[in-house]
What we know:
single chain, SH3 type barrels, mainly beta, N-terminal domain of TfIIb, 3-stranded antiparallel beta sheet, 13 strands
Amino acid sequence: xxxxxxxxxxxxxxxxxDGDLLICADCGYEWTPGAATETDSARIVKDANGTVLNDGDxxxxxxxxxxxxxxxxxKVGSKIKGIRIxxxxxxxxxxxxxxxxxxxxxxVKKA
Length: 111
């Protein structure tokens, strides 16, 4: 039985050592054992003032935002509770009075 960890990229257990590296035979991914990978590190998202945002924070809009594809406008000063940090160019997943929405962190400040 092998004591080598599975591949962090594809999750397959078919890995082998090559010098200081571990290599996945299935996808070809190479990594250093014990080193933090991109998927392990938490993403740091900052608001318009440079404050770090975390999951569950409450934020306030700093600008009126028109909702694409509708006539709804989110007004400046609107509070949004319980944000989630996600990957992509719209870093915040949240529920607004207009429904579920993805927002960019540069248009909010931590409340």
